[in-house]
Write a structure and sequence with these properties.
Elements lengths: L3 H34 L9 H16 L30 H13 L3 H27 L2 H12 L2 H7 L5 H20 L3 H17 L1 H14 L7 H24 L1 H4 L9 H15 L3 H17 L6 H23 L12 H21 L4 H17 L5 H7 L22 H10 L5 H12 L5 E4 L3 H7 L4 E3 L13 E4 L13 H4 L2 E8 L19 E8 L13 H8 L4
Parallel strand pairs: 1-2, 1-3
Antiparallel strand pairs: 3-5, 4-5
Helix pairs in contact: 1-4, 1-5, 2-3, 2-20, 3-4, 4-5, 4-7, 5-15, 7-8, 8-9, 8-10, 9-14, 12-14, 12-17, 14-15, 15-16
Length: about 575
């Protein structure tokens, strides 16, 4: 029989554990906030961010992301808007999110990225709470959320004015609510699950499409009976009703043929390469899967609640990798980012189980802890556990330049987290910033500018200009006053009927740093040592404007290649 003294000791210990748990939670969420927000407004928006920002500004004006503005028609290709000139290529969630930030904080770099950085922090917090609720383990909750918060791939995508982090948050929310629904298939949870599915659609319908097969198959390992299946069916019906307006709006986009399905296997291999490098290394995942199957087979497949959740994560992650390899026009890590939290949960469970196994095999406590801590540090700071896959993937460099990891700035063994810290604390002038600087000096309000890449960026920073893409030539409403070629490795082709065009412009060559492409597999973390050509064409009748600028090439370079 427990006396009053022992009861008070238990209460005090329980409260201390609770306070310590809250402290760890706050520390990890705080770390995530620092990584997501530090220097968030420093860098110039890049092309895809510019697209989101421009369309979000139209939301403030028109109420919807329309493509018509005073001077420009916003587009990057075919079938991106409907007859009412409303954007249909992407779901509208990201545009309303950025528009709300613009309305409160103004149209700045920081305001454009703020809500998406918040989504990243919320994803880390939700993962911690979800794991703690179902594992009741401080180690698993803290490690999974720490691995997510320090993931270079995750942080870089959360620091962009783009749907990536919003999709990651809604994807995790779908899984969280799905697990709760399987435990308590009552009306409240099936309604919440239906809303979560609809939120995923309006954040990123591509991710919803590829995780649905994984969710459907997960009904079996989650031990679903008739009541759970009925509740799930109600959720899907409610979600279908909620997304019906979006389906009608985006129907042409949704029914477009997948651009990558004719090269499915190579793209699948690249996505596995991404999975191995930035999500959960196969050197852990494959042995862990084998051990899991053997142990459960011996126990006649008696699955715990945690086992069922991990199987669900594996099925959804696998469904994402395969589905995106089938549907995506080209391999990209951005398509896998929404499910990265599930991968970090799997990785954390594997590491904790590995620690327990080491202890059971007789490894001393201190030695086991050192092994696990060293493994965690390697996972956070480097790509050391993925070298075999990198070597094999490197053989496909002829088909996919994205796999060209053996460069001066990106050696085979690298410390990407260190590069991330440099990324968020330093600045460099990317071609998009140079193009804006050039336009500020040489283009006046109402004039036309042709730019080969970065047209959305220029539209955001200079809404007073008419921005053309070279593909629109010769259907320009007016002859461009300024032409900028900043990222293409070739010069703008001026042949045949375009001879009159080139006779009206002067040619001023300057050098440019390479592009800061915000994906870890292509990221430099600093100014690229390989400088691409940067060409400026100014109409002859504006030649007098050059007199307002420094005449020496070094001074002109210093003026344009700086952050203003």
């Amino acid at each position: 029989m427990i006396n009053w003294h022992e009861k008070w000791v238990q209460v005090i210990r329980g409260r201390l554990r609770t306070h310590f748990n809250i402290l760890v939670f706050l520390l990890i969420v705080g770390l995530s906030a620092v990584l997501c927000f530090c220097g968030l407004g420093r860098r110039t928006l890049w092309q895809d961010e510019g697209e989101t920002a421009v369309l979000s500004r139209r939301v403030l004006i028109d109420g919807v992301p329309g493509v018509l503005s005073r001077y420009n028609l916003v587009e990057q290709g075919l079938s991106q808007y409907d007859r009412k000139y409303r954007w249909t290529y992407h779901p509208w969630g990201q545009f309303y999110l950025a528009a709300a930030s613009f309305a409160v904080f103004g149209q700045t770099n920081f305001a454009a990225r703020l809500p998406f950085a918040l989504c990243g922090v919320f994803t880390v917090a939700l993962l911690y709470i979800f794991v703690w609720r179902h594992w009741h383990s401080l180690a698993v909750a803290a490690l999974s959320s720490l691995l997510l918060a320090t993931s270079t791939a995750f942080v870089l995508h959360c620091r962009q004015c783009r749907y990536y982090s919003l999709s990651a948050l809604t994807c995790l929310a779908v899984v969280v609510v799905f697990v709760e629904l399987m435990k308590r298939p009552c009306r409240g949870w099936w309604i919440v699950f239906g809303v979560a599915l609809a939120a995923q659609f309006y954040a990123d319908f591509g991710t919803l499409t590829v995780i649905l097969p994984g969710l459907a198959v997960s009904l079996w390992p989650m031990g679903s009976r008739r009541q759970e299946i009925t509740a799930a069916a109600k959720s899907f019906a409610l979600a279908a009703l909620l997304i019906l307006p979006g389906l009608l709006l985006h129907w042409n986009r949704l029914t477009m043929a997948g651009g990558g399905n004719h090269i499915f296997l190579p793209v699948l291999w690249v996505h596995i390469y991404f999975l191995d490098n930035w999500f959960v290394p196969l050197v852990f995942l494959v042995p862990a899967a084998a051990v899991f199957v053997l142990q459960r087979a011996k126990s006649n497949w008696q699955l715990s609640e945690q086992d069922r959740i991990i199987i669900t994560c594996v099925l959804i992650m696998g469904s994402t990798v395969v589905g995106m390899a089938w549907a995506s026009p080209h391999p990209s890590i951005r398509y896998l980012v929404p499910s990265i939290s599930l991968a970090k949960l799997m990785l954390a469970v594997i590491l904790i189980k590995g620690y327990i196994l080491l202890r059971e095999k007789g490894l001393p406590l201190l030695s086991a802890r050192i092994v696990i801590v060293v493994g965690i540090l390697i996972l956070i700071f480097s790509n050391g556990f993925s070298l075999a896959t990198q070597y094999l993937a490197g053989k496909n460099r002829e088909n996919y330049e994205v796999l060209d990891f053996c460069t001066k700035s990106k050696p085979a063994v690298r410390t990407e987290f260190t590069g991330l810290l440099y990324e968020i604390t330093h600045d460099f002038v990317c071609p998009d910033r140079v193009a804006v600087n050039v336009a500020d000096d040489l283009a006046e309000a109402g004039e036309a500018v042709m730019i080969d890449y970065g047209n959305f960026v220029l539209r955001f920073y200079r809404p007073d200009l008419q921005i053309y893409d070279p593909t629109e030539f010769p259907n320009f409403q007016r002859l461009p006053d300024l032409c900028i070629e900043c990222q293409a490795p070739w010069r703008i082709d001026m042949k045949g009927s375009q001879k009159d065009f080139i006779s009206r412009i002067i040619y001023v060559p300057i050098a440019s740093p390479g592009g800061n492409i915000p994906e870890p597999d292509e990221h430099w973390f600093a100014t690229n040592s390989v400088r691409r050509p940067f060409w400026i064409y100014l109409r002859r009748d504006h030649e007098d404007r050059m007199s307002r600028l420094p005449q020496a090439a070094e001074e002109l370079d210093a003026r344009w290649f700086r952050r203003r």
